[in-house]
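tool=predict chain=A
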Amino acid sequence: MQESSGAAAAPESNLIAKEKEKMTKPSTEDRTEGKLHEVKGKIKEEIGKATNDPNLEVAGNAEKKAGKVQKWIGQAEKAVGE
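tool=predict ok
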């Protein structure tokens, strides 16, 4: 009778993790990416204010608003069941 080693289980668990990663729902991706863009936009906006760079401030504000829209789309997709 052969015993299975722990080393063989590790690659299998990595495959499962990769498959789960691929199976992320589009609504979850939209909400996550939207939140990421909101945060990045807020950071750019604040750096633009601190450095007195109106272009960076405007770009940050635009990215923040785009992130809010993307997050809202993800929430709407989840509500209707994708």
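Residues 54-80 form the longest helix (27 residues). The chain has three helices and no strands.
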